[in-house]
Amino acid sequence: MSSARAASRRATILEVAHQAGVSKTSVSRYFSGERDRLSETMQTRIASAAKRLNYRPNQMARGLKGGHSRLIGMLIADILNPFSVAVMHGVEQACRAKGFSLVVCNTDNDPAQERDHLALLAAYRIEGLVINAAGQPSRELKQLAEQGTPLVLLDRSLGELEADEVGLDNARTIDMALDHLSSKGYGDLLYLSEPTSQASSRQIRLERFEQQRELRGLTGRALSLSLDKEASSLEQAISDFLASPSQRPKALLCGNGNVTLAVTRALQAKGVVLGAIGLMGIDELDWCQLVTPGITTLAQPTKDIGRAATEALLQRLEPNGKAAPPRRIHYQPKLLARGSTQDPPTSTA
Amino acid sequence: MSSARAASRRATILEVAHQAGVSKTSVSRYFSGERDRLSETMQTRIASAAKRLNYRPNQMARGLKGGHSRLIGMLIADILNPFSVAVMHGVEQACRAKGFSLVVCNTDNDPAQERDHLALLAAYRIEGLVINAAGQPSRELKQLAEQGTPLVLLDRSLGELEADEVGLDNARTIDMALDHLSSKGYGDLLYLSEPTSQASSRQIRLERFEQQRELRGLTGRALSLSLDKEASSLEQAISDFLASPSQRPKALLCGNGNVTLAVTRALQAKGVVLGAIGLMGIDELDWCQLVTPGITTLAQPTKDIGRAATEALLQRLEPNGKAAPPRRIHYQPKLLARGSTQDPPTSTA
DNA sequence: GACTACAATGGGAACGGTTCCATTGAGTAG
DNA sequence: CTACTCAATGGAACCGTTCCCATTGTAGTC
């Protein structure tokens, strides 16, 4: 009977200590990386008792006493976005390598969910937070920051809040896109973005596009719209663009992967052939090479970004880490030129 | 000075109690859903003190005493697989709706990582586990099960272990695929799967395919191979299939989304036009409608699966839940017929 | 041989909650 | 008026750790 009960519940440190005939302090030492302070005998006795009882230290109790939960939180605006998942993958691997666990929270771009999740993460006393959401910093987020929880922002900046930032070099990315499109002969451009209010990087890209487009003497415009609600307005925008008079080849530039998907769908629905119009996207996706004649993209180094974010975070957790000034890490995208920007209709002259 | 310190650390229940001039028992009651046992006065006093101190109960401490962490674990074999993410999304939403949080662990199909993650989840005393990995149940998993942690398996079964199962009706899925392909006139089929050793559902699909193919008098074969390491062997298999003599139209059937992606790439690399050969996949992906002429798929109801898994799990957590016999919930896929199975070359006779 | 230094170990007080049980006081039935 | 019930509240033990502070024993120093 007692063995049946024992099997149904995790053993405690006290039970192990008892089994091994030592004090719980010693068992605690054994499991907290202080094994070298214990004699050989003691180590083997504890090891065998622990194995026999199938003991694992209770992380809750540990966190309670020591004040560190070994938990990192991550806030993701849209988990269905492959880019976010790829970055998350990187973050998770890096965390695990350092002995931390990652709690992922998806907000579906909903501020209410974001607040809920933040409250939750706070309740678990996470030691750091990677953020890929948050248009406006919520009260919860500010509190978390005030309490000294290190923050890393992915591809956004949150003015007032002190936090490290990791992401793409957005200005350079737009420049690269324009360089590429110009060099291929496209001179009339439409930039399409998801709502800029939700992410500062979108804002930067859009502004940079407008500024550079003008500077380079290219025609066209930039547009920000919500994909969910305005599928028809996207089609309308594309139609207008295609119909607008211009003697230079037209191309569409998509601000992120979601836009690329929506635009590709819209073009297909319209029966527009890729190549008849140029198409280029920021964010590489599985299928960009598969849609004939291949969609040109600027790929983000997702794994690097994830790793860098985690490293920045964990450095803050080290003894003198908090003091350092905020880091800004910006990566260059990689151009993957494909057929969709290859042959502007009128450029063969 | 003291206020500065106060801001940098979370308030405790004792501080709130002190501020409000009540006992910590009352504060505890207030935050544990026993507000109706407190007088109006008390409630407002606690509320204001808590707000002033910005108090949130420490979930670690809660879990320690009460024994429930309010944490659900999820083991995912491959987080980069959109299907897994979609299901995870469903699981997470359902958890949150019931007041649980989800800790997601990605194993990258690596048994070692799986064991690590399981140890970790055990350390946090998760109350339930959703599993989308595990070819063979590891020792850690068995222990978790023995200790009474409810398990839900997604699309796999783990013989010896008692657990609920949620997933696709695999046999029916294969039948639907064969029905569709036959009805379109395809009579020579190649079924491609990822290694069946890693998931029982793959095993079932593959066996069912072979059995039904023969039963229906169709020619062809089924093949199981690893996508990572054997990209070339995939191409070889396809080449062989295409080269094999047959007077009936040929079609490829892909066992899951990863295979569909790899196969589509391989076909493109070979310069094979979709339509010259039939193509059909299990799992719907963003881009299946975009690759001309559109790839026919059998879509899984990912959201339903996620929700069902969570519900099964949480029911086990209820007072009498553990006793119920294991559930088996199987969903029907949805056929999305597209151009890739539309016009077998020789069927126009 | 007495004293110090140090390595090896154990005892017990936190950590921040929950929960059982006691206490108080007001209302109510006899 | 007394006894009893019940609602409202508080005291204190406990959950499973960590960690500070003894305590012991042994070796090294003069």
Automatic annotation (TrEMBL), chains A, B:
<dbReference type="GO" id="GO:0003700">
    <property type="term" value="F:DNA-binding transcription factor activity"/>
</dbReference>
<dbReference type="InterPro" id="IPR046335">
    <property type="entry name" value="LacI/GalR-like_sensor"/>
</dbReference>
<dbReference type="InterPro" id="IPR000843">
    <property type="entry name" value="HTH_LacI"/>
</dbReference>
<protein>
    <submittedName>
        <fullName>Transcriptional regulator, LacI family</fullName>
    </submittedName>
</protein>
<keyword id="KW-0804">Transcription</keyword>
<feature type="domain" description="HTH lacI-type">
    <location>
        <begin position="11"/>
        <end position="66"/>
    </location>
</feature>
<dbReference type="InterPro" id="IPR010982">
    <property type="entry name" value="Lambda_DNA-bd_dom_sf"/>
</dbReference>
<dbReference type="Pfam" id="PF13377">
    <property type="entry name" value="Peripla_BP_3"/>
</dbReference>
<dbReference type="GO" id="GO:0000976">
    <property type="term" value="F:transcription cis-regulatory region binding"/>
</dbReference>
<feature type="compositionally biased region" description="Polar residues">
    <location>
        <begin position="339"/>
        <end position="349"/>
    </location>
</feature>
<dbReference type="InterPro" id="IPR028082">
    <property type="entry name" value="Peripla_BP_I"/>
</dbReference>
<dbReference type="Pfam" id="PF00356">
    <property type="entry name" value="LacI"/>
</dbReference>
<keyword id="KW-0238">DNA-binding</keyword>
<feature type="region of interest" description="Disordered">
    <location>
        <begin position="317"/>
        <end position="349"/>
    </location>
</feature>
<keyword id="KW-0805">Transcription regulation</keyword>
